[in-house]
Design goal:
Layout lengths: L16 H26 L3 H28 L1 H15 L1
Helix pairs in contact: 1-2, 2-3
Bound molecules: fe (ii) ion.
The site of fe (ii) ion has 4 residues, from helix 1 and helix 2.
Length: 90
């Protein structure tokens, strides 16, 4: 899990800063999902397992939130996601 933003802000084009932060946020959310699901698998306490899996699901919602906003500002990403999704439907 990230405790600080893993980018060198000085190397980033200012117009790309928000997009880069969203991508990092998505990575952090995926990392959190893995952590909570791993912890849920490790515990024998059913109440704790339920809480951890509920939190993991909330993190998936956070991924969707960041991903949605990222697609709104990164047209190339939106096109790739749309094209791939349509291709998967065959
Ligand atoms: Fe989150």
């Amino acid at each position: 899990m990230f405790s600080e933003v893993p980018i060198d802000v000085e190397k980033i084009n200012p117009e790309d800063l928000d997009k880069e932060m969203m991508r990092i946020a998505i990575m952090a959310e995926f990392d959190a999902i893995n952590m909570y699901e791993q912890m849920a698998n490790l515990t024998d306490d059913n109440d704790l397992k339920t809480i951890l899996l509920d939190i993991a699901r909330e993190e998936k919602i956070h991924v969707a939130m960041f991903d949605t906003v990222l697609m709104e500002v990164d047209n190339e990403y939106l096109k790739v996601m749309a094209d791939y999704s349509l291709a998967r439907k065959g």
